[in-house]
Amino acid sequence: MEAIVTSLRILALPLTLAAGLSLAPARPVPASPPQIRAVPYDTLEARLGGRITFDTLPRRAEPGFLFDAPLRIGRAWIGEHFAGQILTKRRDRNGIGFDGPPETPPRPPLTIRPGPPGASLSVAYHRGFGSNALFPLGPEGFPALQSRGEGAVAVLFDQAQSAVGLRVHTAYPDPLGAVSSGRGGLELFFYTRQGTLLAHLHLRLDQGLNELGFQRAGNRRDIAGVLILNTDPGGVAIDDILHDIALLLG
Fold it and tell me: Model pTM greater than 0.90?
């Protein structure tokens, strides 16, 4: 077998040279610049005029208020996913269920959709934030403790954005005083109004408060929606979503 391989190598060499091809190592292709890059949250906080919070609702301890329909807050819609998307389901090694990445793309134009009844969104007072916060509900559904913060959340802006920020809180002592061990990750999918995927980011979360900011390459205003997933063992809560309203006000 070795003789056959050697013979093939010898025969291939004249063919390569005859074709005028170089034997020099290929030059690496430069990586494309990122379409979305991370920026400091406080930079966006000082620049952007819009902030989505959940404090128009009364303070209610977990599990809080259940919402089976999308929420209209300020100049944005909040739901579980976008029309056309089918979310996968996944479990970690401890058996905790999470909403997973979509197996189908969104249908244009981008339209917000709720999750299944009892497994979409809830809002409750969050002691880590010191205010109401959004809990995306996982497959276990409301009011299960293992469902709080394990789901998907989609945000659809009225006006296309060039930058978006949000605050994400990971595990903290639950109402029974327990704290989950380990840390998880965050996935963000950024879309245009026509459903084109601009970027799919994977982030490692710190325990406690995470302040995140994202800027479009070239400061282009074409971020219409964001889908947010996580794999944090204790689930996440979301608050203070930053966006720009300058064009709408003008």
Answer: no
